[in-house]
């Protein structure tokens, strides 16, 4: 007990029926209370995100399932699908003692099960070394940097993925932390390498806010994602790409391609370098890019108006109507 009148606590002995006072300082070693350190990496529950470098490039996936960096103007309907630059963060490890790690996968559609087989971000360092020995270089970029790839997989357990092989046999490997035999009755082979599918967003500097390096920590230590002429590849911390992790709204995931969008009589048609709007004479129209920056702001004088717009995802807001999204070629 503590009586509040001085720096003493009252000690009650039920055995000897006595009450005595002791200095608090003398017995203050029973508990040590320390403030909890702030996490050294990005912390989030599973969700959709965009990954944008501080120079404006966005992480995306090309037709060969290679990780690349592209500008907003490159996000054309004829080159990329909206889901190519939206990613799903799925928790791999969520422990205060270490950076929070994630499986970074190609965006999950609203109708798709999160646990379904899909493309997982992958550090190809092990395959790069094996193929390089055979003078085959599908995973190497430049003078030796191994590419960041996206590879089909599905989650079996927290640290275990089912990964189809890339050879002609087309088997399915069980990939976990270490090689061995499975714990189930089948006792099938388990390969090491799951850490090559796990990434964290670690603060780029101690003073940074929402500025991160993308890190893969495997048996070779920490590997950092770099942007080398638009190709994402692994390397040392020096010159690693610095990114922001951007939230994605539900409607953002449903950006429409070059089709006609109708809202209560007003039609919006995205085409080559422009947006056509019909049925909105006399109304104010604001067109913004993916970053929310206005690129056009005008009052329409015709029921069939054409407004120049940059290539990429745009948001078209017609006065009195719900804003819609479209992709301009």
Structural overview:
With 329 residues, this protein is an all-beta fold. It folds into three domains: 1-33, no CATH class; 47-251, Trefoil (Acidic Fibroblast Growth Factor, subunit A) (Trefoil), CATH 2.80.10.50; 257-328, Immunoglobulin-like. The chain has one helix spanning 125-133, and strands spanning 8-13, 18-23, 47-53, 58-61, 67-70, 87-93, 101-106, 118-123, 140-141, 145-146, 148-157, 160-164, 172-176, 180-181, 189-192, 199-203, 212-218, 221-228, 231-235, 242-247, 260-263, 266-271, 274-278, 284-289, 294-299, 304-308, 312-318, 324-328. The chain is elongated and about 70 Å long. The chain starts with 7 loop residues before the first strand and ends with a strand. Mean pLDDT is 75; it is low at 255-259.
Topology:
Layout: E1 8-13, E2 18-23, E3 47-53, E4 58-61, E5 67-70, E6 87-93, E7 101-106, E8 118-123, H1 125-133, E9 140-141, E10 145-146, E11 148-157, E12 160-164, E13 172-176, E14 180-181, E15 189-192, E16 199-203, E17 212-218, E18 221-228, E19 231-235, E20 242-247, E21 260-263, E22 266-271, E23 274-278, E24 284-289, E25 294-299, E26 304-308, E27 312-318, E28 324-328
Parallel strand pairs: 13-15
Antiparallel strand pairs: 1-2, 3-6, 3-20, 4-5, 6-7, 7-16, 8-11, 9-10, 11-12, 12-13, 14-15, 16-17, 17-18, 17-20, 18-19, 21-22, 22-23, 23-26, 24-25, 24-27, 27-28
């Amino acid at each position: 007990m503590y009586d509040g009148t001085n720096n003493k606590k009252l000690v009650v002995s039920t055995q000897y029926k006595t009450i005595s006072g002791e200095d608090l300082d003398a017995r203050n070693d029973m508990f040590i209370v320390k403030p909890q350190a702030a996490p050294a990496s990005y912390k989030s529950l599973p969700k959709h995100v965009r990954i944008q470098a501080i120079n404006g490039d966005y992480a995306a996936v090309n037709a060969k399932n290679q990780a690349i960096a592209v500008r907003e103007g490159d996000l054309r309907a004829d080159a990329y699908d909206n889901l190519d630059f939206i990613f799903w963060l799925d928790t791999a490890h969520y422990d205060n003692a270490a950076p929070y790690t994630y499986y970074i996968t190609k965006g999950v559609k609203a109708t798709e099960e999160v646990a379904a087989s899909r493309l997982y971000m992958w550090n190809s360092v092990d395959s790069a070394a094996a193929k390089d020995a055979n003078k085959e270089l599908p995973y190497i970029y430049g003078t030796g940097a191994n590419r960041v790839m996206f590879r089909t997989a599905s989650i079996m357990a927290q640290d275990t993925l089912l990964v189809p092989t890339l050879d002609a046999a087309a088997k399915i490997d069980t990939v976990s932390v270490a090689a061995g035999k499975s714990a189930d009755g089948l006792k099938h082979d388990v390969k090491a390498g799951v850490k090559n599918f796990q990434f964290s967003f670690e603060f780029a500097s101690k003073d940074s806010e929402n500025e991160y390096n993308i890190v893969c920590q495997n048996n070779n230590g920490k590997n950092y994602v770099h942007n080398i002429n638009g190709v994402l590849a692994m390397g040392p911390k020096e010159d690693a790409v610095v990114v922001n992790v951007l939230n994605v709204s539900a409607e953002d995931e449903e950006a429409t391609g070059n089709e006609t969008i109708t809202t209560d009589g007003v039609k919006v048609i995205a085409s080559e370098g422009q947006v056509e709007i019909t049925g909105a004479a006399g109304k104010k129209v604001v067109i913004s890019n993916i970053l929310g920056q206005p690129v056009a702001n005008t009052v329409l004088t015709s029921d069939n108006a054409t407004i120049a717009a940059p290539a990429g995802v745009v948001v078209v807001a017609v006065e009195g109507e719900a804003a819609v999204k479209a992709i301009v070629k």
